[in-house]
Specification:
Blueprint: H1 3-12, E1 17-23, E2 27-32, E3 35-38, H2 45-55, E4 69-73, E5 79-83, E6 93-97, H3 106-111, H4 117-128, E7 133-137, H5 143-150, E8 160-164, E9 176-180, H6 194-201, E10 208-211, H7 218-227, E11 234-238, H8 242-254, H9 262-270, E12 275-281, E13 287-299, E14 302-316, E15 322-328, H10 337-342, H11 349-352
Parallel strand pairs: 7-11, 7-12, 8-9, 8-10, 10-11
Antiparallel strand pairs: 1-2, 1-6, 2-3, 4-5, 5-6, 12-13, 13-14, 14-15
Helix pairs in contact: 1-2, 6-7
Length: 358
């Protein structure tokens, strides 16, 4: 292993470090507890090239002038991205988001104030009840981690197909197939897209389909999979609020070239999507689920969203700690409530008892 990889290894082995950002030879930053700090450590151009060779090229990821950026999931579950010069003007940039080995289940997320116990119990019921769920939020908000922790509650006898640009989901079922897209080669041939994989997955007898991140026209294929009997489908979408996520999915479906009026697209969405779980990383570094929202129907041609739980912020302490509470904010019970009660997936207390101050 070259000197660049050895220097990087020391940062990777530090359990407090959650993210590593190498900005070419100009500087190196790490994140600890949600706070970014510049290090005295500097990687030379040669050392950065050694890191790219060790992490990406030796693992079969093509990084060249024609394919100047790539993503990979490392052996320990950490996610790495590289973008080379001259696209990165000040030198090749490497970003590594470390895998949280300490996170084992939803109890750990509750301990870290990501959600309350009642929210966790409700989401577990939604997974067991085979609702179609979108996990949304910004980069680094923790939405994929929340999905992974909830995957523990997918029954072991189900066949799960995961579909990702870069395979990084760590699920816990025996009957699981992990599918990964493929970029075109240097001659522009051989590309396999998310749309290709979603369509193929329908022929693989899935009980559940999980899409690591929905960014474009594949949103149509996801919605169609949900509406053709593949209940329990889950996906990840970038967005700042449930309302914005719904609008983004509309836009992505339209980008597929489908010839349908917007009103029909919205009806298709509300007949397929059940829940949006919105998550954010706050200035104090804590990742919190801010909304659990039902996609309820349409009203006056608009998608009607119904908040079930929310994080209500009360203020910030002098040290920067965010204070607030998780609370049930329902105005009417969700459409699936009576079915969940009859199936003993939830009890009435899940919405009625007041949540504690966080």
């Amino acid at each position: 292993m070259g000197t660049g990889s050895e220097k990087l290894g020391k940062l990777l082995n530090n359990p407090q470090v959650t993210e590593i950002m190498i900005n070419g030879s100009l500087g190196t930053f790490i994140e600890i507890g949600g706070k970014k700090t510049k290090l005295d450590i500097v990687f030379s151009d040669k050392e950065v090239e050694d890191i790219v060779d060790t992490i990406f090229r030796k693992a079969g990821k093509n990084v060249s002038k024609l394919t100047p950026y790539a993503d990979i999931c490392m052996k320990d579950g950490s996610r790495a991205n590289v973008i080379t010069a001259p696209l990165a003007r000040f030198g090749t940039s490497v970003t590594i988001r470390k895998f949280h080995t300490a996170l084992k289940d939803l109890d750990h997320l509750i301990e870290q104030s990501t959600l309350s116990r009642k929210m966790a119990d409700f989401l577990i019921a939604c997974v067991k009840g085979r609702l179609n769920i979108i996990f949304s939020g910004g980069t680094g908000a923790g939405k994929t981690t929340t999905l992974e922790m909830l995957s523990h509650y997918i029954p072991d006898d189900e066949r799960v197909i995961t579909i990702e640009d870069t395979a990084e989901l760590k699920l816990h079922q025996d009957n699981i197939v992990s599918l990964e897209t493929r970029p075109p080669d240097d001659d522009g041939r051989g590309e396999i897209t998310l749309r290709d994989l979603i369509k193929n997955s329908l022929r693989m007898r899935p009980d559940r389909i999980i899409i690591g991140e929905v960014r474009g026209s594949e949103a149509l294929d996801m919605i169609q999979a949900m509406s053709t009997g593949h209940k329990g489908t889950m996906g990840v979408v970038h967005g700042s609020s449930p309302k914005e996520v719904a609008a983004r999915i509309e836009t992505m479906i339209l980008s597929s070239g489908i010839k349908l009026p917007l009103e029909d697209i919205r009806k298709m969405m509300v007949n397929s999507l059940d829940l949006i779980v919105q998550q954010e990383r706050f200035p104090d570094g804590v990742r919190r689920i801010t909304h659990i929202t039902e996609v309820r129907g349409t009203h006056n041609g608009e998608i009607e969203l119904h908040n079930l739980f929310a994080f209500l912020k009360h203020g910030t302490t002098p040290s920067g700690e965010v204070r607030g509470e998780y609370k049930s904010v329902i105005k009417t019970y969700p459409t699936f409530y009576s079915d969940f009660i009859k199936s003993n997936l939830i009890t009435e207390a899940v919405f009625k008892d007041k949540e504690g101050i966080i």
